[in-house]
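anyone seen this seq b4? input:
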Amino acid sequence: MKPDELKEYVEFMKKEGLVYLEIRKKDFHLILKKNNEEIEQEFDKIQEDIPYLSQKQIIDQSHKDIQHLGKLIYVKSPLVGVFYRASSPHTKPFVDAGSKIKKGDPLCIIEAMKVMNEINADENGTIKEILVENGKPVEFGQLLFILEGE
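predicted toks r here
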């Protein structure tokens, strides 16, 4: 890296009032710090708010159909197929955004090889967001719903 390029990053840090800047481009990695003590204090504050998960916990969570992140619950597709919000085109959807659900309530149907697979809630909560459009294909592990747990 040329001194002029480094100077541009330092000037950018000053202009924006940054105490830490990290840049990664392919095989290039640059870290600029203003004062190490200030940085460590900021990281300590951030890390206090983030729950620690071991590598095994992260891998275990990624294989589940439901993932918890605080009060939010992410429901993933357990199979490849077509996503349907209702049991037929003429009936109302199982759930809408804002719907309160209980464990065992139907959330959707995923059709796979002409078999209709009902996906039920594993937790009590409220539907915050439906992430798939009715009649659209879904992949294994694709996020379907975001719930807020009780």
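The first strand starts at residue 20 and ends at 25. Residues 3-16 form the longest helix (14 residues). kinda curious what u guys think
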